[in-house]
Amino acid sequence: MERALNREDQREVRELKDILPKNTANHVPLTPVAFLFRTADVHPERLAVAYGPRRYSYAELRDRCLRFASALSGRGIKRGDVVSILAPNVPAHLEAHFGVPMAGAVLHSVNIRLDAANIAFMLRHAGSKMLIVDIEFLPLARAALDDSHSQIELVVIEDPSIVADVSQLLTYETLIESGDAGFAPLMPADEWDAIALNYTSGTTGDPKGVVYHHRGAYLNAVSNTLAWNLGQHPVYLWTLPLFHCNGWCFPWTITALAGTHVCLRRLDAETVITTIADEGVTHLSGAPIVLSRIVNAPASLVERLPRGLAMMVAGAPPTATVIAAAEQVGLSVTQTYGLTEVYGPCVVCEWKDEWNELPSTERARIKARQGVRYHLQEAMDIIDPISMAPVAADGTTIGEIMIRGNIAMKGYLDNPAATAQAFADGWIHTGDLAVKHPDGYVEIRDRSKDIIISGGENISTVEVEGVLMEHPGILEAAVVARRDEKWGETPCAFITCRPGVDLDRSEIVAFSRDRMAGFKVPKTIIFGDIPKTATGKVQKFLLREQANALADDV
Amino acid sequence: MERALNREDQREVRELKDILPKNTANHVPLTPVAFLFRTADVHPERLAVAYGPRRYSYAELRDRCLRFASALSGRGIKRGDVVSILAPNVPAHLEAHFGVPMAGAVLHSVNIRLDAANIAFMLRHAGSKMLIVDIEFLPLARAALDDSHSQIELVVIEDPSIVADVSQLLTYETLIESGDAGFAPLMPADEWDAIALNYTSGTTGDPKGVVYHHRGAYLNAVSNTLAWNLGQHPVYLWTLPLFHCNGWCFPWTITALAGTHVCLRRLDAETVITTIADEGVTHLSGAPIVLSRIVNAPASLVERLPRGLAMMVAGAPPTATVIAAAEQVGLSVTQTYGLTEVYGPCVVCEWKDEWNELPSTERARIKARQGVRYHLQEAMDIIDPISMAPVAADGTTIGEIMIRGNIAMKGYLDNPAATAQAFADGWIHTGDLAVKHPDGYVEIRDRSKDIIISGGENISTVEVEGVLMEHPGILEAAVVARRDEKWGETPCAFITCRPGVDLDRSEIVAFSRDRMAGFKVPKTIIFGDIPKTATGKVQKFLLREQANALADDV
Questions:
Q1: Is the Cβ of A440 closer than 8 Å to some Cβ of chain B?
Q2: In this structure, how many other beta carbons lie within 10 angstroms of the beta carbon of residue B192?
Q3: pLDDT for position B194
Q4: Backbone dihedral region of A104: left (phi > 0), alpha (psi from -120 to 50 degrees) or beta?
Q5: What phi and psi, each to the nearest 5 degrees, are found at residue B33?
Q6: Helix (H, G, I), strand (E, B) or coil at A480
Q7: Cβ partners under 8 Å of residue A48, min gap 6
Q8: Looking at beta carbons, which pairs linking A325-329 to residues 24 or more positions away fall under 8 Å?
Q9: Are A291 and A280 in contact (CB under 8 A)?
Q10: E-assigned strands of B308-394?
Q11: How far is A27 from chain B (nearest CA, A)?
């Protein structure tokens, strides 16, 4: 799939190149922020944002974002500064994807499921200058700021559904009102400038800050339209968290297409399906668990789904059962694959007409494959990480998924060692192991770094093991993924107690609950010896087999 | 429509930018050539090219283009060299859009309607290293080479429909066969490198060589998909000449979408309609005359058109009658506007749902507007060329259409004065005069440079006047556009004879025929005085009124 390209022969470049330099009429740094200006110019009256009874147009969205940027500048935010936001999928979170870069700043969107210590680390590491927080997460934000001993400015997003006293705080709407819609936005001087910062859960040690450039965000925003065959004016439901790779760049994609962003605070099946029906939603995306929740909802809800609804799914592939159930209700699933380092999905299981003739189970099997590179991504291949040779396209030889192209991070913030490692040999090493089928479509077989994906969230096994090992009664701990129909995967802990100590499940769970986010707490706990190799390495392969062989009720 | 952007404040850029440099894993020069590699990887078996009974897949198209590039390299073509092609819309012409840049070379696609002297000028000016010519145009190519005293290599494209002796010549197929499909293509080292060279007809003096960069070709190829709502796998009929702005970048667009290129040598209504029906064509583009030919064809042909056929039109806007006739047969027309300097169309009359409720004549009136900038073009506005202030969006104040962004030429080859003029004040000056409606959609009112667009071809009035003035009996000549239902516009000449000389229409026509391409020969000739301003400038405005007031049979 990877082709030898000759980029070396540079001596022969003719004068054509040199005598016609770039100028301001023929070269502008690419930035996805520009899409808002175009859409507000062309479709000023179209519905941009719907959030419960609240709804406003593209002209208003543009003006609000300009006010936002103006207010940030007015409060001392400068080019390259980091502005953090901790919020569910509310309109302010969407606006931050335009308002923050329009102030020349870098958007740091924080996962609302993290604990205060994690968030505190990120705010410190990012050198964040401001934290914008949704009122539901104000206690978490305060705990994180206390933890980080940070004096940064706090801005609170109010919500009609949540009553609280914010009289001592700067509210988001007050901030916006203080800004000027005639503000001249600080567009990037170079498309390589940073637009966003997204922390990965990290598999070892501290989270890593993935820095996105404007160029990549622009290209992925456009590439989404090709990968998903999006036409003009999609009505897009925000089930995918905006803090996951900037919502896979969909804030910019949907805006470019003058679509409607339907914002949502709660993602329970009833709210999701009712909103789909009431707002005429055409597209949504997210982890397989969202799909699973929709198709497994009570029949009275499921029958309200419009035919032709399209969902883009990434993360652990949905099971064949879920895909078949989705097809049954006329929901068209597009499977993708990606990671934070490449702006979310950049590999898609691009559908072929001839597959429509296959039986349903076979279709589901193919649909669960990760597929081929995005249209605007340069290269993706399955490569032997030792020899760096592509593996045979035989559907059985395992190699590592590697990606390179323009939809790829600048690197990790203040982490040259990890950056160098990620880009070794001119490829982004994903750490995911896969096979390549004879048709070139790839399929994940294992995760070389043992990450667990539970409900769309990455869980580092190393992190959970580290916490468990803090318990005085635990001698050894190894955590692996256990397959789960509902969550995709859940953490399963293998524990060896110290001699003479007798622990039980509830004690481990209580210990963990105090020290990590709820979704990371091991759901299954098995006591006993842990198998190791001759050199003392834990054989996680065997543990995974054991975890997946357990009866459902364990 | 144009927004003041603050790009000045550069002092504050934070270390984020500097500590994370580009590398080969996260930065690749944009080039539309890459689309062929992706599509051949993902859809190797899909039909890429259909030309009469001949048809081949994307795997074959890729391999042929690699062989082509390999053969060019083998024959001494180097990075930055110009390779010219003189051909109708045959497969070789399409292949040149990939094969030539894959050799690192610059594609110069020549208008087959030009005369030998014009072509000779271009070959010399471009410093072309090779001329690839379709067998039908071999005599024209030979005359051009004789005229230019050029020794460059000639490659002839054979065709099953044309019998000729080519035993002394290198044929295109022999060239391809001599190449290696395993060739490592010379991809651009910089996306600012030239990919193509397209000569404009020029309104004064010699034609100008517009140089395209890879970046702009890539972005316009993608932008076409957004402007036209193209999904995967369009079946595209090549009615638009490939030598017009590289077929408006559609060779790359259709390839990116794994569509089928249906090639055509002849564009008569019967061939066009029969091919549309037989090949299941979904999309085509071209000048309004092609649309006019289709809808005005005999009913037995028109009834063969599939419903939902989409046509993108540019050049002089189609008349309301033609648009209404197109709607009647279910043909959906998208009106666009552009010019060679911006890679063809980059302004589109983006349709709004609410317009569907309007009466047919009103819809046609709106549809004939030029519209708004392409999604991936940065800015387009109607500007007073003296004050450089945008005009009021009142539908009556006239200004010049100006464009800037990434879909804009590098400049004119070896013509610094014209390049500086085109980019003056940071905008591309189109020379077209237009108004801006209150909704921001623009509509052309006049051409400041008096160019005539006849059947999609630009005719410089200055050029025709210059030839007429060579006639010993002519004292003065002024040429203007006359509206024409069939051709859009045709040249109308106003001639004042020298005292005592009496010329007639047939003599002028015969004189012109010997000295210019047929489509430039004045179709209407009016003898008499030519009105001038006090300072002696011809009042073309009055002449145009007079020409358009003539009875149809004059």
A1: yes
A2: 19
A3: 97
A4: left
A5: -60, -30
A6: strand
A7: A39, A56, A57, A58, A60, A61, A255, A260, A261
A8: A325/A295, A325/A296, A326/A291, A326/A294, A326/A295, A327/A360, A327/A363, A327/A364, A328/A295, A329/A295, A329/A302, A329/A305
A9: no
A10: 310-313, 332-339, 344-348, 372-373, 379-383
A11: 5
CATH 1.10.1740.10 is held by the domain A286-449: no
Q: Which of A13, A16, A186 sits opposite B6 (nearest CB)?
A: A186
Selected for mutation to probe chain A from B26, B192, B409 (highest A CB count within 10 Å) is B26
DSSP letters for B447-501: ETT--EEETTEEE-HHHHHHHHTTSTTEEEEEEEEEEETTTEEEEEEEEEEPTT-
Q: Measured between beta carbons, which residues in chain A are less than 8 angstroms from residue B15?
A: 80
Binding-face residues of A in 169-188 toward B, CB within 8 A = 184-187
Amino acid occupying residue B255: T
Asked if B81 and A14 come within 8 Å (Cβ–Cβ), the reply is yes
**A48 near A61, Cβ under 8 Å?**
yes
Considering only CB atoms, which chain A residues are within 8 Å of B6? 184-187
Contact A375/B35, CB-based, under 8 Å?
yes
- Tell me the C-alpha distance between A410 and A347, whole Å: 19
**Which residue in B370, B376, B500 sits closest to B444, CA to CA?**
B370
Closest CA to B543 of B495, B498, B508, B475: B495
Q: Which B residues in the span 59-78 are in contact with A, Cβ-Cβ below 8 Å?
A: 78
Domain ranges across chain A: 31-265, 286-449, 452-549
Tokens standing for residue B430: 């189109």
A426 in contact with B, Cβ within 8 Å: yes
Q: Which fold has domain A31-265?
A: Rossmann fold (3.40.50)
B405, containing H or E segment? none
Indicate the burial class of A300 (C-beta count within 10 angstroms; 0-12, 13-18, 19 or more): exposed
Amino acid at B492: C
ipTM of the complex: 0.86
N-terminal to C-terminal alpha carbon distance within chain A: 44
- Give the bridge partners for B347, in sequence order: B337, B373
Compute the C-alpha angle B161/B164/B168, nearest 5°: 135
Distance CA A99, CA B10 (A): 19
CB-CB neighbours of B28 under 10 Å: 22
**Residue of A1, A20, A376 lying closest to B410 (CB–CB):** A20
Inspect the interface and report whether the beta carbons of B14 and A184 lie closer than 8 Å: no
Query: Is A31-265's fold the same as A286-449's?
Result: yes
- Please determine, looking at this structure, whether the domain spanning B453-549 carries the CATH number 3.30.300.30: yes
CB-CB under 8 Å, A256 with B375: yes
Q: CA-to-CA distance for B74 and B93, rounded, in angstroms?
A: 20
Question: What's the whole-model pTM score?
Answer: 0.87
CATH class of residue range A452-549: alpha beta
Neighbours of A343 (CB within 10 A): 30
Residues of chain A found within 8 Å of residue B233, distances taken between Cβ atoms? 353
Q: Are B322 and B291 in contact (CB under 8 A)?
A: yes
| pLDDT block averages, 10 residues each, chain B of length 554 | 44 52 96 98 97 97 98 96 98 98 98 93 95 97 90 94 91 98 97 96 74 98 96 97 97 98 95 97 92 91 94 78 84 93 95 90 84 96 94 92 97 94 94 91 77 82 82 89 90 92 92 91 93 69 88 73
The share of chain A scoring above pLDDT 70, in percent, equals 93
| φ, ψ (nearest 5 deg) of residue B354 | -65, -20
Could you tell me the CA-to-CA distances from A360 to A231, A319, A327, A443 in Å, in that order?
Answer: 27, 13, 9, 19
Report the alpha-carbon distance of residue A182 to residue A130 in Å, rounded. 23
- Copy the structure tokens of residue B539: 């009042």
Q: Which of B38, B372, B419 comes nearest A373 by C-beta?
A: B38
Q: How far apart, in whole angstroms, are the C-alpha atoms of residue B223 and residue B237?
A: 19
